[in-house]
Amino acid sequence: MDLKQDIKLAVDIVIFGYEERQLFVLLIKQKYGKYKGRWLLPGGFVKNKEGLKAAAIRELKEESGVVVDDLEQLFTFGDDVKRDHRGRVVTVSYFGTVKPSSMKLKAATDSIDAKWFTIESISDLPYDHNQIVETAFNRLKSKLNYQPIGFNLLSKKFPFSDLENLYMTILQSPIDRRNFRKKILSFDFLEETDELLSKGSGRPATLFKFNKKKYQSSLKRGINFEIKFA
Amino acid sequence: MDLKQDIKLAVDIVIFGYEERQLFVLLIKQKYGKYKGRWLLPGGFVKNKEGLKAAAIRELKEESGVVVDDLEQLFTFGDDVKRDHRGRVVTVSYFGTVKPSSMKLKAATDSIDAKWFTIESISDLPYDHNQIVETAFNRLKSKLNYQPIGFNLLSKKFPFSDLENLYMTILQSPIDRRNFRKKILSFDFLEETDELLSKGSGRPATLFKFNKKKYQSSLKRGINFEIKFA
DNA sequence: ACAAAAGTGTTAGACCTACACCCATGG
DNA sequence: CCATGGGTGTAGGTCTAACACTTTTGT
């Protein structure tokens, strides 16, 4: 065993939120160190007896108050030996999705504030955090095409138009409402409720909910959820 | 900075090779330690001033003699705090593809031997290496469906039947030769040479080669290389 | 009655799938 | 001349893409 190895292991987390036709990323304001006062991704060092994903979930909660029960591993950044000024730090990045209005943001430990930023507004993050966000955003976009990923980002019950707008926002391109609805409904993992939602003017929308059981049983039957729109 | 962190960082590499309608994985025979004499994945600890991918390429070469110029990051294993008996070790796994007959295997440093094993024949590897191989195999299968990945696994010039067999071997299902050829040729990244290859009896096959430039320019034009066969 | 958002079908063309015979060579 | 592997076309069905008007509500 190489006793001289001196590499620190960290985790960084990219949390996406969606609200009112806008996609947001969660950032925290650093309390200490070189980047005190700067906004950056939640994250921190892994504890000796703590799993990687567990560390990510813990740091996220500590620094922002956001609680998730699962995160997906994104990429491990460690090709650049000098990505961190404090010495050699390798970071395992995670990403997750959340509905902002269901979370109360609350800074603690290393952070003095936590806030949602639109994805366009973040630039010049410290370290390689811009690259991490970009990687996460690309993954989000590509996952949208083959997994019904959007449902964490919406309310439990939502009008169909929310889904449409979510896809259009993330993919940054218009989609055909009729074809989209047909395709999604054909997958048969949405359930129509008998509730309606009026928001301001216009015809009230029937609310749908995601039926996880149906989704998973379709998955087992090997059904592909590919969604392609120009 | 957490001075008490005591986590070692390693890399493990899954190299796939294809020859004669069989898919192989490269393993090395361990020279030292608890698993002395056992076959397992090439890999080892990352040096302080060495990028992760560079460490993987170096370890691969040192332990097996296999030289690659690129590897793809697969997954970072570190949720199980006790995956390594030597203490807390987190490993970043990589995978790559290679044509076995173009490589001379040569053990050195930590390994006393290096050998190709068919994917079916490997079981009971030390640590969580079975899980790593499984992860890599799944990735290989899924990449086959949307990237012309197979070309590292074949000779520079190859008969069309080699590609067919490669796909059938990896996906473990028969494919329709006519439809497969039509689809692949429609992507227009293969170039027909005027050479023929006779192997034993049967009509000689025209040799094709992969045209990387055409592939990349198609990629830029946003063409999708999706290949689906039951 | 008007503005705003929800809901809904059809058609043409592209793509996928299934399928069987002839060709060129070696032995 | 037989065995072996290489090379090729078509038709039916399915899926995709493009497209516009009606319904229900709030103001």
Structure notes:
Two copies of one chain form a homodimer. Chain A has 230 residues and is α+β, with helices and mostly antiparallel strands. Chain A folds into two domains: 8-144, Nucleoside Triphosphate Pyrophosphohydrolase (Alpha-Beta Complex), CATH 3.90.79.10; 149-220, Winged helix-like DNA-binding domain superfamily/Winged helix DNA-binding domain (Arc Repressor Mutant, subunit A, Orthogonal Bundle), CATH 1.10.10.10. Chain A has helices at 52-64, 129-144, 160-171, 177-187, 212-220, and strands at residues 8-19, 22-30, 39-40, 43-45, 72-77, 89-98, 111-118, 157-159, 190-197, 205-210. In chain A, strand 1 (8-19) and strand 2 form a beta hairpin. The first copy, chain A, starts with 7 loop residues before the first strand and ends in a 10-residue tail after the last helix. The interface between A and B is medium-sized, with 30 and 30 residues.
Structure characteristics:
Arc Repressor Mutant, subunit A, 10 strands, DNA-binding, three-stranded antiparallel sheet, 2 domains, 230 residues, seven-stranded mixed sheet, alpha+beta, homodimer, Nucleoside Triphosphate Pyrophosphohydrolase
Bulk shape of chain A = elongated
- CATH architecture call of the largest domain in chain A: Alpha-Beta Complex
Tell me the helix content of chain A: 25-40%
Total strand count of chain A, please?
10
The oligomeric state of the chains shown is: homodimer
Report the CATH superfamily of the largest domain in chain A. Answer: Nucleoside Triphosphate Pyrophosphohydrolase
CATH class of the largest domain in chain A: Alpha Beta
> How many separate structural domains of chain A?
2
N-to-C SSE string of chain A, H for helix and E for strand: EEEEHEEEHEHHEEH
Query: Class by helix and strand content of chain A?
Result: alpha+beta
Rg of chain A, Cα atoms, Å: 20 Å
Sketch the major β-sheet of chain A. 7 strands, mixed
Low-confidence sequence ranges of chain A:
none
How many helices of chain A? The count is: 5
Of all protein chain pairs, which has the greatest interface, and how many residues does each chain bring to it? A-B, 30 and 30 residues
**Beta-strand fraction estimate of chain A:** 25-35%
Task: Output mean pLDDT of chain A.
Answer: 93
Distance between the termini of chain A: 53 Å
**CATH T-level fold name of the largest domain in chain A:** Nucleoside Triphosphate Pyrophosphohydrolase
